């Protein structure tokens, strides 16, 4: 109980409270503590990559073992990782401890396979957005009609063809972005920030402990 | 009318495909007029160019999936910086970014005959999201002790005299995630008070308008359209300008489908009421 509940709660309180306070204290000692905490954070993030790597490889390996639907794709994912990893270690002949080479197999695969595939996946959104817009973007109510008109003005006015059609479109886009959009976004940011502050205080003071797991708290 | 309402999505896909592919193959152009947020970025770089021994920090915070939007932006900014003899220090806050940043730096430095070390430096990637920003604000050399080739930043002319973020004439972040609003502004700009601008994907741009109005973000380039506007300002048309043809036609096709869908919807509703 002490190791699974009390100690993590105490650590969250100590580090949370200190991190909040030192943000506002310009004194040298506070700055030194902030520097140390930032370095720890960077190291923790680096180790999180190992955790993520283990997690994704374990997930795909389990799918292959159980012959779940689409298990062959899991095999492709693991094989892709291994091939990339081998080329990173080989490092165009320089070995794993030399600075990363700016040419060679890894760079080739990154540029011509990874970048190309990732960009293609992202670009596919245009097709799905077009299809979804056609099916769902209907002026069923006055609110939906306002949203629809704003969206059409934005889609036309944000690209050069809008300028070519009429100066109205870019000017209307500028107004939409700088007045209603800005007001709504500012409200959302304030709301989200207040929520984040409240949640952080609940974690720091041990009121919110669901992040520790266990389920019933 | 029902057939029109339930149109096969492959027909929509075909229209979008043709609307994107054909304008990329045929050479024509639309007039590009820079918007105010993009003009403000340009003006910031011009301000930097007018100062003594100017040096900017470019943070690459995007990955492979957003290359079509972000890489033209990076190239346009680098071309502006190198054409005005502004020195560049590049870092990455996104794990996939080093390969993309290196490619952009190599390409544009080659175009302008810039030398590594004296005109620019590339320091690579550090994990920790906003933590490296806090460290850079305190002590740049402590946060980024070596470049990607293992050279101490104190031994690189362009970084030798940089003590912290305030020593840069401008900091610019290329963001595909929330690095501008959740990393740079709260942990960098608000804490250390340096000049800051950014570029982001089109979908993120509306989120950043409150920061533009408060001047925490001095200028913003939003998406491929913003990159095309910047190419217009620096008078070097690139892939963003070419992409505007396809994006313009694709937007028109989507608008046309939305209008057709609504016309069919109202017609079917009227028929149902009759």
For the record, give the distance between the C-alpha atoms at the N and C termini of chain B, rounded to a whole number.
Answer: 14 Å
Overall mean pLDDT of chain A stands at 91
Strand order of the largest sheet of chain B: 3-2-1-4-5-6
**SSE succession of chain B:** HHHEHEHEHHHEHEHEHH
What structural class results from the helix and strand content of chain A? mainly alpha
Helix content range of chain B: 40-55%
The first-to-last residue Cα distance of chain A is: 13 Å
Determine the structural class of chain B based on helices, strands and strand pairing. alpha/beta
Spatial extent as radius of gyration of chain A: 26 Å
**Please, how many domains of chain B?**
1
Concise structural overview:
The complex is a heterodimer of chains A (217) and B (274). Chain A has 217 residues and is an all-alpha fold. Chain A has 8 helices and no strands.
Describe the structure.
The complex is a heterodimer of chains A (217) and B (274). The radius of gyration of chain A is 26 Å and the shape is extended. Among the domains of chain A are: 1-68; 137-204, no CATH class. Chain A is an all-alpha fold and 217 residues long. In chain A, 11% of the residues are buried. The model of chain A has no long low-confidence stretch (mean pLDDT 91). The longest helix of chain A is centred in the first third of the chain and has 39 residues, at 28-66. In chain A, helix 2 (28-66) packs across helix 3 (71-90) and helix 6 crosses helix 8 (168-204). Chain A is built from 8 helices and no strands. In chain A, 79% of the residues lie in helices and 0% in strands. Chain B is α/β, with parallel strands linked by helices. Chain B has a single domain, classed as MTH777-like (Rossmann fold), CATH 3.40.50.10160. Helix content of chain B is 55%, strand content 12%. Chain B contains 12 helices and 6 strands. Chain B has helices at residues 2-5, 9-25, 36-49, 67-83, 97-112, 131-138, 140-143, 157-160, 179-192, 209-213, 223-234, 239-273, and strands at residues 55-61, 87-92, 120-125, 170-175, 196-200, 220-222. Chain B has a 6-stranded parallel beta sheet with strand order 3-2-1-4-5-6, with helices on both faces. In chain B, helix 4 (67-83) packs parallel to helix 5 (97-112). At the A-B interface, helix 2, helix 4, helix 5, helix 6 and helix 7 of A face helix 2, helix 5, helix 6, helix 10 and helix 12 of B.
């Amino acid at each position: 109980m002490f190791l699974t509940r009390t100690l993590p709660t105490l650590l969250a309180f100590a580090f949370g409270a200190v991190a909040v306070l030192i943000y506002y204290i310009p004194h040298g000692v506070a700055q030194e503590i902030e520097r140390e905490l930032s370095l720890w954070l960077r190291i923790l993030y680096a180790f999180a990559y190992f955790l993520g790597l283990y997690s994704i490889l374990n997930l795909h390996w389990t799918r292959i073992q159980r012959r779940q639907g689409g298990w062959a794709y899991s095999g492709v994912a693991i094989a892709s990782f291994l091939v990339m990893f081998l080329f990173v270690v080989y490092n165009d002949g320089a070995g794993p401890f030399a600075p990363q080479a700016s040419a060679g197999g890894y760079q080739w695969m990154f540029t011509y396979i990874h970048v190309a595939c990732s960009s293609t996946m992202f670009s596919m959104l245009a097709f799905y957005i077009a299809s979804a817009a056609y099916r769902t973007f209907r002026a069923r109510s006055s609110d939906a009609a306002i949203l629809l008109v704003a969206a059409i003005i934005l889609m036309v006015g944000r690209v050069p063809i809008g300028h070519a059609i009429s100066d109205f479109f870019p000017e209307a886009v500028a107004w939409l972005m700088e007045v209603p959009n800005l007001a709504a976004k500012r409200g959302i940011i304030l709301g989200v920030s207040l929520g984040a502050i409240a949640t952080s205080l609940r974690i720091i003071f041990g009121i919110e402990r669901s992040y520790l797991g266990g389920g019933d708290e | 009318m029902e057939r029109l309402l339930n149109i096969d999505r492959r027909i929509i896909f075909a229209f979008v495909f043709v609307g994107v592919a054909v304008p990329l193959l045929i050479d024509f152009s639309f007039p590009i007029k820079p918007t105010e947020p993009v003009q403000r970025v340009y003006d910031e770089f011009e301000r930097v160019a007018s100062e003594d021994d100017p040096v900017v920090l470019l943070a690459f915070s995007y990955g492979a999936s957003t290359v079509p939007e972000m890489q033209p932006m990076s190239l346009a900014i680098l071309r502006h910086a190198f054409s005005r003899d502004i020195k560049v220090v590049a870092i990455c806050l996104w794990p996939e970014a080093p390969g993309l940043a290196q490619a952009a730096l190599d390409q544009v430095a080659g175009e302008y005959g810039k030398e590594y070390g004296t005109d620019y430096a590339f320091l690579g990637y550090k994990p920790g999201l906003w933590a490296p920003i806090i460290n850079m604000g305190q002590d740049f050399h402590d946060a980024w002790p070596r470049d990607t080739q293992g050279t101490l930043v104190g031994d690189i002319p362009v970084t030798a005299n940089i003590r912290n973020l305030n020593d840069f004439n401008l900091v610019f972040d290329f963001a595909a995630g929330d690095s501008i609003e959740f990393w740079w502004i709260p942990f960098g700009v608000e804490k250390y008070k340096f000049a800051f601008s950014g570029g982001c994907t089109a979908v993120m741009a509306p989120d950043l308008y409150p920061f533009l109005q408060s001047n925490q973000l001095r200028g913003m380039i939003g998406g491929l359209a913003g990159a095309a506007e910047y190419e217009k300002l620096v008078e070097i048309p690139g892939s963003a300008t070419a992409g505007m043809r396809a994006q313009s036609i694709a937007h028109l096709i989507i608008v046309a489908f939305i209008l057709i869908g609504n016309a069919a919807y109202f017609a079917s509703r009227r028929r149902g009421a009759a």
